[in-house]
Amino acid sequence: MKANVYNKGRAPNVGQLDELQKPAPQKNKAPARKASAAWLVPTLLILLSFIPLAAGVFRLIQLASGAEITPANARFFASPLPVVVHIVNASVFALLGAFQFVTRFRNRRPGWHRAAGRLLVACGLLVGLSGLWMTLFYPWPKGDGELLYAFRLLFGSGMVASIILGFAAIRRGDVIQHRAWMTRAYAIGLGAGTQALTLMVGELIAGPPSELSRALLMGASWVINLAIAEWVIRRQAVPRARTASAAVSHLQ
User: Fold this and answer.
1) Is there a domain that residue 27 lies in?
2) Quick one: which of 28, 38, 166, 222 could link to 191 by a disulfide (CB 3.0–4.6 Å)?
3) Cα angle vertex 204, ends 200, 210, to 5°?
4) Total domains, the chain
5) Nearest 5°: phi and psi at 222?
6) What is the Cα–Cα distance from 185 to 162, expressed in whole angstroms?
7) How far, in Å, CA of 84 to CA of 183, rounded?
8) Is residue 8 a part of any domain in this protein?
9) Prediction pTM value
10) Which of 185, 198, 179 is nearest to 48 (CA)?
11) Which letter does DSSP use for residue 102 in this model?
């Protein structure tokens, strides 16, 4: 009777063998999947920014080429500097800011994160301040009204305040509050991308918007972005709180 009878119909209960007949190490695909998921966030943020950035580039081309002046663009030709400052800095803020949300990239390149952060603070302030200037001093375009005027002042001021608070937080070493306030500022700055979606959906459902519905749809975009930002901030705070609680319990 043979001692090593082997059932060919069943696989042996061992891992795959390499050419030296030793168990081959099993590759862990989880880190690769996690890295891919991490880069999904900036990709989505850049895609969300595409419509307003494309519109901004088109506006710059109009100004540079001396396009025909119409009631819709006359205010930009009359005073082009604020809109040029707004478009250029909004482009940098939206594109560069998206990569600040990749934790692994941020941790591996802290020098890059700090340098990019300083540039983003400057760009974000210029975006907010130029937006406020245009709201206050440009003639109102057709379809705007007092409610949208108030929304633009409110959220533009909120963006500037969030950047200042975020910068002040990192200066005193409070990384958690720094990230929270800069996340809020980025959410407000990305409002134009969400506005393209809310206006499109609103028009598909109810037809061309009125002055009131347009203001509400545009205001909703900022609210949506801030709601998502708050969810992200609180979601990030939970693991930190659990880690701190576990550390305290371990020391007791």
Assistant:
1) no
2) 222
3) 75
4) 1
5) -65, -40
6) 5
7) 24
8) no
9) 0.80
10) 198
11) -
